[in-house]
Amino acid sequence: MEMKLKFLNGAHLGCIKAIAASGNWFATGGTDEAIKLFDLVKNREVGSLFLHQDEITCLGFHNDDHLLSGDKTGKLCIWRAKDWQLVRELKGHNDGINSISVHPSGKLALTCSRDRTMRVWNLSNARAAYSQQLSYEAELVCWSMSGDFYAISSRHKVYVYDTKSGDLIYSYTQPKYDAIHSIAFVKEDEIASGGEDRKITVWNTKTGSIKATLEGFGNRVKGLAISPKQNYPATDYQNFLISISSDHTVKVWDLDKPKFPVVQTTVDARLTCIAIGTPHLHKAQTQTEEVNSPTVEEVKQPQAQPQSQPQAQPQSQPPKKKNKKKRNSDKVEKDPQTTQTQAQPQAQAQPQPQSQPPKKNKRKRN
Q1: Domain residue limits at 173
Q2: Residues 299, 326 within the same domain
């Protein structure tokens, strides 16, 4: 196994805080308040979305059809991937959204916020389905592979809940109370967490027993993601676990043999987030044509069009100006804002008084 850099893009003006991938697309968001869109097949940037007025904190794809984005103000937006138009803006959180996770079925989304609430959103009708007040600020949320369970992380603790009943199944606390920065289900009943303690801990959500400890990091673990073991022998674990760290490393782990990473690489950048995407090559052509439409560049453009119509109407009123041009057309063109009372006296006073006296004076001298 080998990792190769496919392309590098310095698209953002600030730090990247969130990333999501699905099908042929992946999206990034950060402190510059912009969402950047990329084509995973052609390996290039294809557009930007500008609607959020604060830092983008989380992103998540709903199948390959929609993108969800949350920001530091608590705004949650749903974008249609077909033409990248805004479908709905959801309001419910009173403070910044920390994390978002889409249910494997694509019907639900889970968000947590700095306002100490967790919300479940029905993506079929784009409405809030459930809200729960928490006694702590949840920083991370994620669904299990089946969607029957979900996990919430807060500082140095991880809580696992049953989706149907909402009951707490188990909670895990870091031994030294080190902050947790990332969580991911590696099996239906096993979850991995990484953070300030510079290691990854895999533990069973039913018994609380530690299944594996992945070490060898020179700094905090910032992100975790899972990837299917394609063309690779899979035994107990059907997925690889990929980690990123503040020590500039990207590592791929086989949890069947967790002692050492399968492969790792070092990058010349501070790693903040990670997402796994698998392009659908047979859909690449049609989707790329759709995303290149002008609507991708800036979503604010449709809002600016209605403003341009009333501005054009006052300028397109020629009847009043034509009447003024008969008397003094040059002056009306130079100052269209001049009132009728100012233009008329100047046109009447200049020709008559000034043209008659010179003739009379010439006759007297002759």
Answers
A1: 16-303
A2: no
